[in-house]
Design goal:
single chain, 340 residues, alpha/beta, Rossmann fold, 2 domains, 13 helices, 19% strand
Length: 340
């Protein structure tokens, strides 16, 4: 009785109608640690639902960084690790579902009646989708059918489409990636936020709102998902150099990558084999035409040739100050917006 009352209290708080004898759902969450996952998880539990288990690719699920913990604190939702500890939810690392012997039996053992995938690269086999049916749901950070695929926010910023297609989509999982019927969406244009971290937080709040409102109705069968229009589908593939300044880039392209999104610094690389994360913050100077000389990596700057110029880019402490303290823009954005 106490649990039922708690569900009603939380539902009244968020303005959601609750059936008097609603049965809680028990979901398997396949999710990666991030603000969107944290806010969806907290909203799911606030409805009186249960989480059978967390499955994740991440090796850092149980040990979030200081920045992750500060961002979660600033956003008002615990990290996934904290939620798992608080509710004694089992956590399993699953790089590939295909590597799990007798996968259907392993999922059956969790006791889950619902599958939620959030910000994960894990592909769900058709046999598992058949088990959950319409109760297999994915959270995608773009307004489908546009920008299906991985890292849609990064690519839409590069493409200059973040105001048009920035937002969150909940959709039924199908064998085709990000192509299932749409349950609900919320638009979140980048121009309404001052920083990539604040944009991420806006997505998290939008996803939590859908989790509290439209998702319960869908799972109860009182809301239908709407099929996507195949003619409008846009699968945006991400390439290795998408957010990288290389010697093939023009000066105009380098400026665009450096300016397209505060808080999302590009990296500099010699070539595809250079896997080090040389984050760059801004353009310090255009030194002249290409010289043919080797790059010079300093403590604070990188000097290198690109296609039509030799440039000096700021790095190091400035890049970390922009990208390494995401909780500050989150706090600023949260204070500037009414509570949701």
């Amino acid at each position: 009785m106490v649990a039922d009352q708690l569900v009603v209290i939380r539902a009244v708080r968020y303005g959601i109608a609750v059936k008097e004898h609603m049965s809680p759902a028990n979901a398997l969450f396949i999710a990666e640690p991030c603000l969107i996952s944290s806010h969806v998880t907290q909203a799911w539990l606030d409805q009186g639902n249960r989480i059978a288990a967390f499955w994740t690719v991440s090796g850092r699920f149980g040990s979030p960084s200081l920045n992750d913990r500060l961002s979660a604190l600033a956003s008002g939702a615990p990290t996934l690790a904290a939620i798992a500890r608080r509710h004694a939810i089992p956590v399993r690392r699953v790089p590939r579902l295909s590597e799990i012997a007798d996968l259907e039996h392993e999922i059956e053992r969790t006791g889950a009646d619902t599958l939620l995938t959030i910000m994960t690269p894990v592909l769900i086999p058709a046999s598992i989708l058949d088990v959950f049916g319409r109760r297999a749901v994915n959270v995608h950070p773009a307004l489908l059918p546009k920008y299906a695929g991985s890292r849609p926010r990064h690519t839409m910023l590069v493409d200059g489409k973040a105001d048009e297609y920035g937002g969150v989509t909940f959709h039924q999982l199908t064998p085709k990636i990000d192509a299932g019927p749409i349950i609900a969406q919320r638009a979140r244009p980048f121009s309404e936020t001052p920083h990539f971290a604040a944009w991420d937080f806006a997505f998290a709040r939008a996803a939590a709102e859908i989790t509290r409102k439209e998702l319960p109705a869908y799972l109860e069968g009182t809301r239908d998902a709407v099929p996507q229009d195949p003619s409008e589908r846009h699968y945006r593939k991400t390439y290795w150099n998408e957010l990288t300044i290389t010697k093939e880039r023009s000066l105009a392209e380098a400026r665009h990558l450096l300016d397209c999104a505060p808080g999302m610094p590009p990296r500099w690389a010699r070539d595809k084999s250079d896997i080090k994360n040389h984050s760059v913050h801004s353009l310090a100077a255009v030194l002249g035409p290409p010289t043919g000389q080797a790059p010079v990596l300093g403590a604070l700057t990188i000097e290198a040739d690109i296609a039509d110029a030799r440039i000096c880019m700021r790095r190091g402490r400035l890049a970390r100050a922009t990208y390494g303290r995401p909780f500050l823009p989150i706090v600023a954005y949260r204070l500037s917006r009414p509570k949701q």
